[in-house]
Amino acid sequence: GLQACGNRNNKTFRMFFSCVTCSLPSKYYDSNKIKTTKYSILTFVPKNIYEQLHRFANIYFVVIALLNFVPVVNAFQPEVSLIPICVIMAMTAIKDAWEDFRRYKLDKEINHMCCYIYSRKDHAYVEKCWKDVRVGDFVQLQCNETIPADILLLYSSDQNGICHLETANLDGETNLKQRRVVMGFSSQNTSFEPEFFQNTIICEMPNNDLNKFKGYMEQPNHERIGFNIENLLLRGCTIRNTEVAIGIVIYAGHETKAMLNNNGPRYKRSKIERRMNVDIFLCVGLLFTMCLVGSIGHGIWSGSFPEHPPYDVPDENGNFLSPVLSGFYMFLTMIILLQVLIPISLYVSIELVKLGQVFLIHNDIDLYDEEADLPIQCRALNITEDLGQIQYIFSDKTGTLTENKMVFRRCTVDGHEFSHQENAKRLETHKELDLEDEDFAKLQQFTLPQMNIERPATYQRTMRPLRRSQSARAHFQGHTRSRSLGRRDSNQSQVAFSSTIEKDVTPDSRLLRRVREAALRTENLSPFIHMKTATSFTDFFLALAICNTVVVSTTTEPRQRVTVPPPIKPSGITLEKIHQIFQRLKLVSLSQSFSSSQSSSDLGASFSAKNTEEHLATLDCCDNDDSCCDSSRGSVTHGTLPTDFCYEAESPDEAALVYAAQAYSFTLVSRTPEQVTVRLPQGTLLTFDILYTLGFDSVRKRMSVVVRHPLTKEIIVYTKGADSVIMDLLEDPGKERRMKRIKDKTQKHLDYYARDGLRTLCIAKKVGSEDDFQKWANFRQEAEAAIDNRDELLMETAQHLETKLTLLGATGIEDRLQDGVPDTIAALREAGIQIWVLTGDKQETAVNIAYSCKLLDQRDTVFTINTENKETCESLLNLTLEEVRKNYEVENHGGNFLIPGPEFGLVIDGRTLDIILQGGLEERFLELARLCRSVLCCRSTPLQKSIVVKLVRRQLKVMTLSIGDGANDVSMIQAADVGIGISGQEGMQAVMASDFAISRFKHLKKLLLVHGHWCYARLAKMVIYFFYKNVCYVNLLFWYQFFCGFSGNTMIDYWQMIFFNLFFTSLPPLVFGVLDRDVSAETLLSLPELYKNGQNSEIYKLSTFIITMLDAFYQSLVCFFVPYLAYKDSDIDVFSFGNPINTVSLLTIILHQALEMKTWTLFHWITIIGSVVIYLTFSLIYNAVCVACNPPTDPYWIMEKQLSEPAFYLVCLITPAIALLPRFEQSTFLSLHFVNLTYSVASVRYSAPVSQV
Amino acid sequence: MKNKKSSASQEAETRPSRCPDNSAFKQQKLPAWKPQLTIASVLSTFFLTGAFCLSVGVSLIVAANSVREIQVDYSDKCSNCSKLRENSSNWNSECLCSINFTLAEDMLGDVFMYYGLQNFYQNHRRYVLSRSDEQLLGRNVDVQNSYCAPFAAYKNGTPMAPCGAIANSMFNDTIDLFYNFNSSVIQVPLLKTGNSWWTDKNVKFRNPDSHNLSAAFAGTARPPYWHKPVYLLDEEDEKNNGYINDDFIIWMRVSAFATFKNLYRRISRKGQFTDGLPAGNYTFHISYNFPVTKFKGKKYVILSTMVWSGGSNPFLGIAYLVCGAAATLTGFIITAIHLKLRKKKTYFQRR
């Protein structure tokens, strides 16, 4: 194919030129072959071992195993001592290999996908695998094809040089994005010829920013053409609506933005693991103490003999060691002997248990969102138990607490407020409809059994107690059904979607009348020239319709490939043809308007050409998505208008505004990069030339569109944005009282909207002259071509344009609260979790939402701190703190816990937050915040959000959780201990950064209260149990040292010792860690207080650890000394003595686990009984077979012999009973006592005994 | 559950739903037994355990008390021999010692004769390892590379048979028992075979194959502490000679503790001793060879009968009694607390 040659010596830019004649290989750049595997077959063993040795514990065990090869200190046969570490490492290796193999298969599949690449030899596009794509290759892409690499778009079959992309694979956003052909190439009407491409491409080095890309192309005549992200097709996206696109590969393989963004699962260290590491060091200390005792004991013991007794065996040369030296060697021997005190299998067990926990969380049907067909995604595999210890939740507002589905509610134009009562009523009825639908859907379930065959049982079972969640799901089911029916016979789709709520706006009758009047007046007086006198009403709705980036599509056909490619030239089209097309589109009024406007021939022609084609092109852009198409649903207000347009907007706010404009008959008909067409109330079509679009960004908080009015030829800037910004940019009203009045009134209305919980936007315009615009346009072009401080320049030019605006009006959009949010928040609060809301929204809106989602209560005292002055801020904080404290003191002295006093809420805005953070007032702020029921931070930037999270996490040393859905929440999500992303309307950035991704806020309740509690309780108990198990078992060997002269002897055969840890006692804790349910899910959900158990780390803290250690010591004493005393003074031999000890300790350890288990499923029974059976079977077989297989300590026939003696059974019965008696007594005392207490204090609700220890 | 795809929806077929299975396992709703600690179950557990332990304990104590046992410390009583053995250069000189004792009661049933050693750390790690099971199986092994060192071979390369510290330090006193009956002295018949484990005697220990024993051990030498080579351990009984000598096998089963006893002989129940040992005066005739003063040890000879639960050790019985008592006591305490709390509860309710 084509070759790219270039070099990389510049560190900030990459440069290459692509030419057909050039034959140099493109060895400088990565090929498109991707390899996400870590290992190959050859490198697996060394690399995996190397990686595993990065773990401190593994090194420890390897060193000890190697120490065993030193003859003076060895405790076991050296080869045998390698087994445990080998098994552990092999298990980890198998897990790694399996994961890697899955990645390998996936890579292979992707690498062998096909695409068309221009071949120099054949002078045509030939089919090649993805992996053979090189930088500089020309790739031809067809509709619905996935893009193989990052490609600069050079040709599109679309007339306007547009290529539509679906980026769902990349960021989850389902709406189409437009990409344009690089400037200068778009004019070509003929197909693109790679042979003539002679340009040098200079662009930035590969990076992972999906939204930024810049570079330029140098033509042979040294003319530079700039390009940016708008011209780049990203790997992994899908081409839609465009028949053919051709481009040149810029980044391939691992250098593509998609691959650079793919970081894989994240690894964090959980709180339990941090705690565990401390305890491991305690164990190391214990180990050293024990070894020291052994070593000193041995020194004293061997020094106590006047001459060497026959059992003190000299070394091979017949020499004896001095007591001191032999004591020292004994220290090392003891370390080897007692090494198991550090639980070798703990790490791998924890990993396995967490995998199991993640699997179960992932498969929870209650955390599955039917609408999006998304189960919960667990992206971090090893912090499941942190979910059970959360103390602070930081939540975003929009899209997290609310649905991020925007509904137009009210507007104010020209200082007049229009309350849209009818619309409000309609929304109310929608809610009722929702409820009816639930019942309807439920009926459907039982009449259509084949639909629900998979889960009628649960439905019937859970219907009563879990009515809320149940009904919600039923609603979705009905929804799905009607969706699928709707496609076959769309007349039947009648279920209210939220999307319908968004689309239908019932116009305010008063406003409608005034708009009609205004429009009529303008049109009647002077049909096409007198737009200048148009009232601000007309302008307002024109602005709503134009000032956005909404893409229009019609709804008559599903989205598919375009099949009408020949470009329609304006001249070559007959009126009849246009009529026919319009007939087909059922655009009756449109065709009328066309005939009415045909007097102005050039306007009509340009419209027809652009417009028909646009329609043909967008016929297909409507997917099966219900949010997009719902064609035949009769609209209440537009009964006469048979056609709906589908609007694909970047943000739901934009769509809501366009729908609102449509409700007042200002219909956005089409949009191309150059032109936008709007139908006016009378049916007149106006096509504006778009001169420039300044997109929305969070810094400017506004967007602008510059258009040329088709009739007056004026240059008009329409701007919409946050009121705080727009109000400052308005033209100084100066003397004109009217303007000032409008501004004040609008501000008043805006404040009212915000109090009502609405999102507000201001609409403004500016009329400018052609010259001014040209000047600005040149300025702008320079800025765009700049490579250095381009961003600053762009910002500057934008600010230059957006000044001296005239206020047209403002809108209020409602963002509806998500289902079940108040309930969830109430439950989480009951669970003792503090919830903060960090939002970029207005203070009033935020406070309002906080009230409606029960974050704040009407009885609460809410303190608001808004100041820009440090001193004021400090004194405010002090005053508030004093008052809050006073209140708490009163409450504490009153001692009445049953009636809670007033609680406090704190509202603070971004600027104040800045002062607090910069002025060193953090401690005061946190002190106050800690005493408040909830804290709201409004108008905060993403950076502030993350700083607040970090501040709370570090200063208060609490477990934090951040939840959000948008890109602005990413930093906050990453800053918290647990980050949760909501996969919603705003793309996938939040999900990508998160540890867990859910689709609804209400899922948080079960995730934390049930799964969090379970995971924490399971893992904490399992870790404790592992420590207990190892200490208990190892101590048996330690006690024996007192009877064998501290010589490091063991009474248990080494194989049985290894297997004890590896097999006989390993499965029950694993099953316990994955499956145990100490309290049922229903109880956990109905009693959120139980969550506090995990919050306070009650199951696993230092005191529990010490108590468990003491218990382990006691149990090991019993397990050793009961057999010892029973066999004392008898003729028992070493291994016959070890056998009952091994058996009783196994029984004790297993029964101990059994006492911990609160639910006994089949798996529990199997593993508990199975472990004992496996032990007995193994021992019997091993003892019968091994005559001389493990010299010199063959335990031949011991088990068989002892099983024939009654004494063995007597010992095996009594020892576990004595060992576990205290623990059993303690747990019975606690639970009986506890149950009794709760009976007398609370209620009968505690159906399950809660927690012990 | 498998046929969930049957919901005729076309969509479900074209794009499989990511909805998790609604199976009991995945939804964590597996049927489970939840042990409830109710007052009834707790009390019954404690009382039943208590009753069971107490009854077992009583029967164990009764059984242990029926064991007749007599233990004679002969390293103190044969002090002259002890002194002689202190000096290892006297290893060749024989030392005989007689000890009289009286049985006040008959010892009925099988009577076992043990020798006991005190302070002999047979369980020392290096001692335990110093053996070659392969050699004892009669296989021809290179003992130089076994765990036997330094008791593997002599300096001239002759391997020791058997090798290792355990074998080398084998107990080599001989003890005979005489019954003084009406001024006549009757030697009590003792069985020297059948004392070791059957599997040891027949599987774990084997003599090397050869037409006679001395040939089988040709090319080897006795361990340094031994007076005679291994094939002369029991010259009377071919089946109790060499590695399969019972005394040797029993010695090779290293004891778990520093103070221990090993079965030496059983009383052959014939003639006057059909029912066991009758009460009366007896004498031990001991050929004193094994030195114990070096390690401050003592030697015993023990005569004992056996019961179903083992020997005379009463510990297990006591343990059961204590455990049973503790369980019963806990049961009573819980009952008391429960009654008290219930009273309180009703008090609360009444209020």
UniProtKB/TrEMBL annotation, chain A:
UniProt gene name: ATP10B
Organism of derivation: Meleagris gallopavo
Binding site for ATP: 396-398, 654, 696, 720, 759, 839-841, 939, 945, 968-969
Record region (Disordered): 464-499
Entry keyword set: ATP-binding, Endoplasmic reticulum, Magnesium, Membrane, Metal-binding, Nucleotide-binding, Translocase, Transmembrane, Transmembrane helix
One Gene Ontology MF term: ATP hydrolysis activity
GO cellular component term of the entry, any: endoplasmic reticulum membrane
Presence of keyword Membrane: yes
Membrane-spanning parts: 57-76, 82-98, 278-301, 328-350, 1023-1042, 1054-1075, 1102-1125, 1162-1185, 1207-1224
Domain of life: Eukaryota
All copies of domain P-type ATPase C-terminal, residue ranges: 991-1228
Protein name stated in the entry: Phospholipid-transporting ATPase
Family according to the record: Belongs to the cation transport ATPase (P-type) (TC 3.A.3) family. Type IV subfamily.
TrEMBL record, chain B:
Residues annotated as transmembrane: 37-62, 315-341
Top-level division of the source organism's lineage: Eukaryota
UniProt record, GO biological process: phospholipid translocation
Main location as per UniProt: membrane
The UniProt record lists the keyword Membrane: yes
UniProt protein name: Cell cycle control protein
Region (Disordered) residue spans: 1-23
Record's subcellular location: Membrane
This protein's GO CC annotations: endoplasmic reticulum; Golgi apparatus; plasma membrane
Alphabetical list of InterPro entries matching this protein: CDC50/LEM3_fam
Family membership noted in the UniProt record: Belongs to the CDC50/LEM3 family.
Biased composition (Polar residues): 1-11
The keyword Glycoprotein appears for this protein: yes
Keywords attached to this entry: Glycoprotein, Membrane, Transmembrane, Transmembrane helix
Pfam family, one: CDC50
